[in-house]
Amino acid sequence: MASATAASASASRRRCLLLVAALLLPLAVEAAVPHRHRLPSHHLASHNTSEPPTTFFEVDRPIQPPRGSLGPCSTLLLSHSFGATYGLPPVTAAYAPSACLAASGRGSLALAVLEWSADCRGRQFDRIFGVWLSGAELLRSCTAEPRATGIVWSVSRDVTRYAALLVEPGEIAVYLGNLVDSTYTGVYHANLTLHLYFHPAPPPPPPPQQADLIVPISRSLPLNDGQWFAIQNATDVQSKKLSIPSNTYRAVLEVFVSFHSNDEFWYTNPPNEYLEANNMSSVPGNGAFREVIVRVNDDIVGAVWPFTVIYTGGINPLLWRPITGIGSFNLPTYDIDITPFLGKLLDGNEHDFGFGVTNALDLWYIDANLHLWLDHRSEKTTGSLMSYDAPALVLNVDSGFSGLDGQFVTSASRHISATGSVKSSYGEITTNFYQRFSYVNSNCFSDNGTVQVVNQTIDGKSGVFAKDSSAVLLSEEIHQVFPLHVYTGTSDQVGDEYSLISFVKLGVNEKKTSGGKLGFSYSSLWNTQSARGSMKVKNNLVVGGLGETHEVYKYIGTDGCYFRDVSSKNYTVILDQSSDSCTKRKPYNGTKFSSRNDQSARRKLLGKKL
Ligand SMILES: *[C@@H]1O[C@H](CO)[C@@H](O)[C@H](O)[C@H]1NC(C)=O
Ligand SMILES: *[C@@H]1O[C@H](CO)[C@@H](O)[C@H](O)[C@H]1NC(C)=O
Ligand SMILES: *[C@@H]1O[C@H](CO)[C@@H](O)[C@H](O)[C@H]1NC(C)=O
Ligand SMILES: *[C@@H]1O[C@H](CO)[C@@H](O)[C@H](O)[C@H]1NC(C)=O
Ligand SMILES: *[C@@H]1O[C@H](CO)[C@@H](O)[C@H](O)[C@H]1NC(C)=O
Ligand SMILES: *[C@@H]1O[C@H](CO)[C@@H](O)[C@H](O)[C@H]1NC(C)=O
Ligand SMILES: *[C@@H]1O[C@H](CO)[C@@H](O)[C@H](O)[C@H]1NC(C)=O
Ligand SMILES: *[C@@H]1O[C@H](CO)[C@@H](O)[C@H](O)[C@H]1NC(C)=O
């Protein structure tokens, strides 16, 4: 059936995952069908309904309600079983602010948490999904891959910054494109819940960290897809025209990004000349560098050099059970402050907000939320762009190969800086936003192309500096380093059988500082995963194998600390220690220490770091 084949072929592109094995297996590349790993059928046969489901999880700092706050006041927003949902409209539900929010008002909202909890049993690919409220994306995530005995998992995201949306009636939309047949039996049953916490009366003044208005830059319903834009190639730019209120005095774009299909493992893609020389026409190429470019009209206002999220079936699916890859359940978003450009946008006309991806192959899902702060004491603010510097990307590829073996070293850098002023009832405020990125990737094929080693580091800094004539109002900087190492080796290839050894190391190292009128904050995160595994593949099925993963998460900040050291092997957690202490004594003993009275430790930390 031609139509069914086309549907499943295009559906498979929408998975989080399209295994890179095809790339690692030049012998198999010529085959028309790329490798797709499935769980072995004997896993399904050993089905025992009385065995408890496995809990999958992403290591993250638990979200803590502010001390003394009341709650939670929880509302089920949507409950749905995602079976054959691919290519259908998103599942929607009317959203009305809960009675507790209506009663307390936005000003007393202390914390809002969106929780996705789901279960699944059987066999299924990892699927990308998105949650939108009135067109603004609230969560981008990837499902966990189920097992015969069932899995459960949940992901929580702090959605307090969307307070302006949460207090208005709207519509929740969830798109999770799933396919169910006799092989892929897993149906995802999910609940989406909003938990609210409130400041006890009397409420403090509304927090200026939260925007007054959130304008979605996404596609509008009705759609038979998610509300994200789909970017298919390097020249594809997807955009939306919109006008902003003429009393805006601050604007921040929050960008959601995920990469799939031919670009799911973009950082392992070799240059096209290597693929051409080896007649590997079905292997994704375009080299190993990608960046998302954000434009307002014709200006590049910022870039995203994304964290290399590895989805739950990525590289070797056995690596991510039950500890999932960093960011895979809760994909990171990226903020671009466009306040310096407000002078060009306050004319009441529509302006074009667009996204493109340098060197993109099919397929990137991108959208954004535009957070706007409005001047309630004036109808019109004015502004001007004072300086703007966005030189072209610097990209170098050092390439050498002979046959299937070779090494490619790619390096890149980019710098963007814009300064503009906005006159409002707060005075005339000058804002500078800057980004400075560097990247290096080494991609090495050896043993006649059967071994691939990729080492990559992305280093990105961005900051905002705002001042009026008398004082610095805000000075914040975020510095992120994303190291990545991927080793994959194929061996024992006989016909459609082979073994794959993988070793993956990835991490997020992040430092944030913020100072100004709202006080001072600092945080540092060191989050590293090392995973190794082997699998035997026969006829595109994983018929055996083992994966193990070790993760160390260490957060130190003015708002508390969190440490976790956790290891898993063969679906089982074999070590798990955590602490929320900020002191260094007795640190990693699995004992919980209170961070509440740890002011002296924090002062010590601050004194040292700054
Ligand atoms: C290397 O791989 C190619 C294609 O996969 C194969 O034709 C060739 O015989 C291999 N060479 C060696 C030395 O194994
Ligand atoms: C099913 O699992 C339960 C709990 O792990 C165990 O007690 C029981 O013996 C298993 N039954 C079979 C048939 O394996
Ligand atoms: C969803 O909520 C229903 C009703 O509370 C509950 O029975 C079910 O177990 C929940 N499912 C998940 C996956 O959390
Ligand atoms: C890139 O993608 C766009 C949008 O799908 C399409 O219109 C265009 O033809 C593509 N360009 C190339 C060179 O494939
Ligand atoms: C690639 O294909 C061309 C034409 O079919 C052929 O002449 C050439 O030898 C092939 N190269 C390799 C490395 O297989
Ligand atoms: C790649 O990274 C691994 C692990 O961090 C390291 O052992 C190796 O030396 C690196 N290789 C290159 C070529 O940089
Ligand atoms: C992995 O765990 C399963 C049970 O969940 C067990 O049957 C199997 O032997 C284990 N494999 C290894 C290599 O430890
Ligand atoms: C962990 O804490 C327990 C109880 O306080 C203590 O007995 C033990 O010695 C500690 N272990 C380490 C390695 O500090």
UniProtKB/TrEMBL annotation:
Q: Which PANTHER family match?
A: PEPTIDE-N4-(N-ACETYL-BETA-GLUCOSAMINYL)ASPARAGINE AMIDASE A PROTEIN
List residues of the Peptide N-acetyl-beta-D-glucosaminyl asparaginase amidase A N-terminal domain. 64-390
Signal peptide coordinates: 1-31
Question: Source organism's superkingdom?
Answer: Eukaryota
Keyword set for this entry?
Signal
Which InterPro entries does the record cross-reference, listed alphabetically? PNGase_A, PNGaseA_N
Q: This protein is called what?
A: Peptide N-acetyl-beta-D-glucosaminyl asparaginase amidase A N-terminal domain-containing protein
Q: Which Pfam families match?
A: PNGase_A_C, PNGaseA
